[in-house]
Amino acid sequence: MDGRNYSVVSELVFLGLTNSWEVQLFLLVFSSVLYVASMAGNTLIVFSVTVDPHLHSPMYFLLANLSFLDLGACSTASPKMIYDLFRKHKVISFGGCIAQIFFIHVIGGVEMVLLIAMAFDRYVAICKPLHYLTIMSPRMCILFLTAAWALGIIHSLFQLAFIINLPFCGPNVLDSFYCDLPKLLRLACRDTYKLQFMVTINSGFICVGSFLILLISYIFILFTVWKHSSSGTSKALSTLSAHITVVFFFFGPTMFVYTWPNPNAQMDKFLALSDAVLTPFLNPVIYTLRNKEMKTAMKRVFKPLMIFRKIS
Q1: CA 115, CA 57: separation in Å to the nearest integer?
Q2: What stretches in the chain show pLDDT beneath 50?
Q3: Is 203 helix (H, G, I), strand (E, B) or coil?
Q4: Cβ atoms within 10 Å, residue 151
Q5: 3-state secondary structure 46-83
Q6: How does pLDDT run across 165-188, given as a tens digit for each residue?
Q7: How high is the pLDDT of residue 69?
Q8: I need a surface site. Which of 9, 60, 111, 258 has the fewest CB within 10 A?
Q9: Do residues 253 and 77 lie in contact, with contact meaning Cβ atoms separated by under 8 Å?
Q10: Which pLDDT value is given to residue 265?
């Protein structure tokens, strides 16, 4: 190759999740229900935190931003996947594929930083309660959010830089239901082994590094609480359990996809499906069911609407 752009592929073909009509029908119903529930649940959290002044605190500010990200996460690949379950010929334009990769990595990068910010918020609230409002000031929250988006965008652009000059001149079939960089690199008309290795190292390092930071943070918080007050351990565990559950649901599939050397195709699809529709659905369920203040706030927000409906 002499460095010129030989790309002639205008669209990519997805093989989808399965060839079984019965399984496709089940996935259609399952994914559609979870998608609608995810959109409704996360929108409800964002709306409640925005409207209710009782939830105008750093913890709920970060939670609302996490729900906003989940709205983007379940909308990046899920609608296209659900639509393709109706179709025999599943295609996406090359530009659409690049856009999908970009948003997947932006949202993933932002969510990792945001989960670290939420862990820091819980550390300050539990270990330094008297200084909580001073440390977790509005300025600090905005700083966390700005850093999260900046790092997420930089990470995504860095990933896309790997494919700017790659030639795509023939193969256009992806054994998946969505676009991701490792799969797309295998379709290039030249040896991309080194690039695939660099992508895996980049995403894998960020993912595993973020997970370890969170794991160490939560262990440190629990150890600190246990050291100072054994009676407070159960309360701290109850407070942190929702955060820890969300962290494992988010990082589990992602780490497997980007760190497992030779992933099984079906397992890879299952984990990707979990990341696309299940995790965004579970996040609002976990946070609302485990949080009495959030449930009370939702009742306060929607009580006037229910009264107005009865009157009308």
Answers
A1: 16
A2: 1-6, 308
A3: helix
A4: 16
A5: HHHHHHCHHHCCHHHHHHHHHHHHHHHHHHHCHHHHHH
A6: 788 887 889 888 888 888 888 888
A7: 93
A8: 9
A9: no
A10: 65
Going by C-beta distance under 8 Å and a sequence separation of 6 or more, which residues neighbour residue 17?
Answer: 23, 24, 27, 81, 85, 177, 269, 273
pTM of the predicted structure, to 2 decimals: 0.86
- In angstroms, the CA 219 to CA 78 distance is 34
Enumerate the β-bridge partners of residue 91. Answer: 13
Structure tokens belonging to residue 310: 């009865």
Task: State the residue for tokens 């370890």.
Answer: 212
**For residues 224 and 237, what is the distance between their CA atoms, to the nearest angstrom?**
12
pLDDT for the residue 3: 45
Tokens of 13: 């073909």
Tokens of 48: 């409640």
